[in-house]
Fold this sequence. Notes:
By secondary structure, chain A is mainly β. Chain A has strands at 5-7, 10-13, 19-24, 31-38, 42-50, 53-57, 64-68, 74-78, 87-94, 105-106, 110-114. The N and C termini of chain B lie far apart (39 Å).
Amino acid sequence: KAGVTQTPRYLIKTRGQQVTLSCSPISGHRSVSWYQQTPGQGLQFLFEYFSETQRNKGNFPGRFSGRQFSNSRSEMNVSTLELGDSALYLCASSLEAGMSTDTQYFGPGTRLTVL
Amino acid sequence: QQQVKQSPQSLIVQKGGISIINCAYENTAFDYFPWYQQFPGKGPALLIAIRPDVSEKKEGRFTISFNKSAKQFSLHIMDSQPGDSATYFCAASENDKIIFGKGTRLHILP
């Protein structure tokens, strides 16, 4: 079974631009969560989608948004990029909603650099 | 109150030794405490998790000890091996919103 895939793996953008990251969950998984990982702040939860609905959201500004499609694939969008948005963005999938009820499987991440 | 404080930041252990990583929290509403292992260039992977109604959980060489009254929990890696060298994150979750510790970089000497 293929794991969680994220595209692109690396991305370089400039301040003010917007970016869209993609995540394909493990086949059959319906829940997708997104995380930001930086050396300073560590791992931070962005949001969780289940059955095309945002189920949970972390403490990030509205510039960070996401969506989930009917095939469970998910996209994350960051608008008006700031230098501080440089990070590894991780996607994780699970069969059911809620990380406390089901094991999440992480993808390798997308490394975003904002210049 | 939403923080999870993890220590130490880095740890070096001899092969065969016991690696111990500690975490502390303030929010008593947390109801799920997972530990993740992350190798360079990879996403984190769930290692072991515990709920507050249990004081200890063991899976192979990995054990979580949970002290509800002290609001602390720890990961013990018995017979540590060079392949255990990775970054370990503790976390705590309330209503499926998860807070991570800052991570511990573990290095096992061969």
